[in-house]
Write a structure and sequence with these properties.
about 250 residues; seven-stranded parallel beta sheet
C-alpha cells in the first residue's frame, strides 16, 4: 500500500497507460480521480476500481480547456480533501506531419492537449500542494521529447516542451516539497494511434530506424515505473525525464 491515504488525479485514464496507472494506484491505496474525454471510459474505469475494492470517482475532462482542468482539480479537493499526486497522461498524436504541412488547427490541437493541459493542471495544483506541504507531479512525455524522428513537428515540439516544463517545475518547487518528473515511453500497446491517416513522407522518415524497435511495451510496464516515481520511494528523484522504451533509444 505504497500510496495509502494519497489522492491522485490521472488524466486520460479511460484506456491504455492512464487506465493501468489509475488501477495500480488504487490497488496501492490511493483515492483516484479518473478523468477522460469519453464518459463511458470514465465510468468503466471507476467501476473496475470500485469492484476491486478501491476508491475512485470520475470526471469528464477535455484537458485543453482550462475550465475543465480547474473543475477536475476542484473535484479532487472537494471530494477527498487534498491532492497529493497529479499525473498528466492525456495526449494525442499528429499523424507524423512535418512542419510544412502542419496547419494552424493541427498545431493548436496537439499543443492544446499535450502541453496546455499539463500547464493548466500544474498551475492550478501547485498552490494546493504548497499549502499542504508537498506533492508529486508526473508528466507522461515521450521518446519524441528527447529525439527528433519519432513523430511529426507538433507532437515532437509538445513533448520537448513538456520535459522542459517538468524540469523547470521540479527545480523551482523542489525545496518546497513538490517533485515533478516525466516518463518518456517508447512503443507501447495503447489506443493513441497515429492521430489520423499518416503523412506519407513523415511516416517514411520516421520509419528509417524502425528496424531497431524492440517489442512493444504494455501499459502496465509504464504504470509500474509511474508508481515508483509518485511514491515516497522516489523522494530523491526530481526534475528527471526517464526513458522507458525497452532499449529503443539505446541504439
Amino acid at each position: 500500500m505504497r500510496l495509502a491515504d494519497k489522492v491522485a488525479i490521472v488524466t486520460g485514464a479511460g484506456s491504455g497507460m492512464g487506465r493501468a496507472m489509475a488501477e495500480l494506484f488504487a490497488s496501492e491505496g490511493a483515492k483516484v480521480v479518473v478523468t477522460d474525454i469519453v464518459q463511458e471510459r470514465v465510468d468503466d474505469v471507476v467501476q473496475a476500481i470500485q469492484s476491486a475494492g478501491g476508491t475512485a470517482s470520475g470526471v469528464l475532462v477535455d484537458v485543453s480547456k482550462e475550465a475543465d482542468t480547474d473543475a477536475m482539480i476542484n473535484h479532487a479537493v472537494d471530494t477527498y480533501g487534498r491532492l497529493d499526486i497529479l499525473v498528466n497522461n492525456a495526449g494525442i498524436m499528429d499523424a507524423m506531419t512535418p512542419i510544412t504541412d502542419v496547419s494552424n488547427d493541427l498545431w493548436r490541437r496537439i499543443l492544446g492537449v499535450n502541453l496546455d493541459g499539463p500547464f493548466y493542471a500544474m498551475r492550478k495544483a501547485i498552490p494546493i500542494m504548497l499549502e499542504q506541504g508537498g506533492g508529486t507531479i508526473l508528466n507522461i512525455a515521450s521518446i519524441g521529447g528527447v529525439q527528433g524522428g519519432r513523430a511529426g513537428a507538433a507532437y515532437t515540439t509538445s513533448k520537448h516542451a513538456l520535459i522542459g516544463l517538468t524540469r523547470n517545475t521540479g527545480y523551482m518547487y523542489g525545496p518546497q516539497g513538490i517533485r515533478c518528473n516525466a516518463i518518456c515511453p517508447g512503443g507501447v500497446e495503447t489506443a493513441i494511434g497515429l492521430g489520423g491517416a499518416p503523412h506519407e513522407w513523415g511516416l517514411q522518415r520516421m520509419q528509417t530506424g524502425a528496424g531497431n524497435i524492440g517489442p512493444a511495451g504494455k501499459p502496465e510496464d509504464i504504470a509500474a515505473v509511474a508508481l515508483l516515481l509518485v511514491s515516497d520511494e522516489a523522494r530523491f528523484v526530481n526534475g528527471a525525464a526517464w526513458v522507458v522504451d525497452g532499449g529503443w533509444t539505446a541504439y
